[in-house]
Amino acid sequence: MRIVQVIPSLDVGGAERVAALLALAQQRAGDEVSVVSLFDAAGSWIEAELRAAGIGLRFLGKQPGLDPRVVLRLARTLAELDPEVVHTHLHVLKYTVAARPLSRRCVPVVHTVHNLAQHEAEGLVRGGAAAFGGARRRSGGHRHRRGLLVAVLVSEKPSRGAPAEDGRGVC
Question: Is 68 exposed, middle or buried (0-12, 13-18, 19+ CB in 10 A)?
Fold first, then answer.
């Protein structure tokens, strides 16, 4: 299976390590794995470890703050890599969801919650509904003392702009 892990950066941190360990395990299991960092290379030992294992790394040159140019860069990168699954980490979900309809075909997006979901989804989730690319699934909300925790789900079957038989189309 072709899997793309998307993470803000590959600087040393807990979520970055989780994404790297997951990519290494997926590769050992026979999957074709790439890791995309929204920011430039950090020169970390995590990057070195992934390169040494032969895992493809892509860096999109994101600038601090909201950088809309990264959406197009990510869409192009996903089109080139042609993944069967995109796995996001931390706050890259907004960029991935925005890039999804611009990619060659719609692919399932899986998001690992490393922090409070409301912080990672950053306004993409309202009232427990997944508001991404036409997804109609509802997510289960759970009360937490700091707010609503939401499990973010993106449907692999878009509800609007149905794709063509070959899987291409609007998500």
Answer: exposed
For the whole model, what pTM was predicted? Answer: 0.70
Strand partners, 125: 130
Cα 13–chain centre separation = 17
Distance CA 85, CA 36 (A): 13
Q: Give CB contacts under 8 A, 24+ apart, made by 128-132.
A: 130/154, 130/155, 132/97, 132/100
Q: What is the pLDDT of residues 134-167, one digit of tens each?
A: 333 333 333 333 332 233 343 334 444 434 344 4
**Would you put residue 127 in left (φ > 0), alpha (ψ -120 to 50) or beta?**
left
